[in-house]
Amino acid sequence: MIVKGYSSLAQLKQILIFQDVATTQLESLVRCSYVREYLQDEIIMHEGDRIPQQLHGLIKGRLEIKKTADNGKETIVRLIPPGELFAAPAIFGNEISPATVICQVESQVLTIDREALLQVISQSPEISLRILEVFNQRLQQLHDTVHGLISERAMVRLVRLIQYYGDRDGTYSVPQGDCLNIKLPYYQIARSIGITYEECVRLFKKLKGIAIYQRGGTIIVRDWQRLAVASNLIDN
After folding, report:
1. Which of 110, 125, 148 represents a domain boundary (last residue)?
2. Which of 99, 115, 162, 178 has its CA 20 to 30 A from that of 72?
3. What is the pLDDT at residue 3?
């Protein structure tokens, strides 16, 4: 980790909840917010760590949030893209990290001291609503994931994961179809939807002609409509 020092206004505005906040209000946060750089595969916080009372947001890079069960099995809970928040308990909870946060690539993390954030919220209450909205969406996603692991077939979970990251991170056109902006390697998909690496490979083979997996985690969807119905037509 490298501490870069105070953030700039431009860096603060890279966090989605601050994009529409007046510059005069954000200026008071500059000397209460800090930027740190992390290397690829560097751990920002371990599950169970005590974390300082700060808002955590990702400026640049991509983070992997994962939890470890008592039996040692790891599950990737979500991926954090630039502009999003993470480590909610540092602000609203018991200040204990609920998961391990790892940098998938070189990343920059912005933190803001809680007391300074509360002062700005008192002037712009809409910020608190945006924060609550972010974490409410996370809770809903977690609920959907748990429900899926209990009741949905693996193919359904795989299709929903592809759709989720396609909607969240967007796609770009290639000759074969729509390519996801985010790379999702087999191991990552498997840990996200509760299946084995081998089963993940097998499921993609069943999506032949609908979705293409390329080495390194590149996923190309050839037909979104067929993908949407694939989970009901293809047996696991």
Report:
1. 148
2. 162
3. 66
